[in-house]
Amino acid sequence: MTSEPAVKPKFKGVWVRLISAVGLVLLCMLPFYFGGWLWAALAGVFGGRMLFEWVRMSDPSPQLPAYIAPILGLLAGAIYVVQGNMVLAVLAVIITVISVTGIQAVRKGKEKTHRVGWAALGVGYIIIPTLLIIGMRGNAVGFDTIGFQRVLFILVCVIGADVGAYFGGSMFGGPKLAPKLSPNKTWSGFVAGQLAAVILGAIVGAALGIGWLSGALLALPIAILSVLGDLFESGIKRKLHVKDTGGLMPGHGGLLDRLDSLMAAVLGAAIFLALFPNFWPS
Predict the structure, then answer these.
(1) pTM for the structure as a whole
(2) Which single residue of 33, 91, 222, 276 has CA 20 to 30 Å from 179?
(3) CA 181/CA 64 separation, integer angstroms
(4) Hey, how many other C-beta atoms are within 10 angstroms of the C-beta on 157?
């Protein structure tokens, strides 16, 4: 008598993931509403935690300066962004890159070059999107401010793509999207996520006054970038033989595991709005 193969349960761990996600949203609500220093402080804490996870993941024997240098660079950049001094913010990022690569370059060991590259990549991968989301939110208080609305739109699109992909992939399964990078992602989940993001983008875009068509058009690249950001981090973890960047969020892993898609989406949205300012005028 042969036993039947075990069927993988659908929506495994959904309640743990949901509770963790709701907790994260509740934590962000007040800082997101008020913006300015409060939002910068929260983003700085998140960015600092992600830098900690990055160093711990990418450096087999991290030393204290490897943690301190990028976090100090993030802190300086965040202060300058809130003050509106973008020149000094960019300078802080450049100095941080030089500092973290220099710290790794003077260390001994055959993996020196490897550590230098990962240190520099971590600055661009984490610090720059963190500063962008601080600057994009701005200092104005309230729901009707342009900064609140833009960041809200990005968040809705990223969450829509993530939730749509999770449920679509769990329900329909099918061919894998990128089996070597992320074996759990499917093409059905990808399509479902993109549809969810575009629909939500159209609804939110109409509500915020940019129109449903503009909302849908902007939502699509944001959603695609969020998937690419997720796959990028998955590829890094596979390269470094790491399952999760941490265990801070039950059901999600580390904070970097949870916010990887958002960072890519913020970077892409910031570039798009800088190139086409009239698409969503201030």
Answers:
(1) 0.88
(2) 222
(3) 31
(4) 31
Which residues have C-beta within 8 Å of that of residue 170, sequence separation ≥ 6?
10, 11, 189
Q: Is the dihedral of CA 139, 140, 142, 148 positive or negative?
A: negative
The continuous run of DSSP H or E covering 184 comes out as: strand 182-186
According to DSSP, residue 279 is labeled G
Residue 279 to residue 265: CA distance in whole angstroms = 17
Give every CB contact of residue 104 below 8 A, 6+ residues apart in sequence: 59, 66, 112, 115, 116, 119
Tens of pLDDT, residues 16-49: 666 766 777 788 899 999 999 999 999 999 999 9
Angle between helical axes of 14-34 and 36-58 (0-180°, round to 10):
140
Half-sphere exposure of 260 (CA within 13 A, CB side): 22
pLDDT digit string, tens, across residues 54-105: 988 888 778 898 899 999 999 999 999 999 999 999 999 999 999 988 888 8
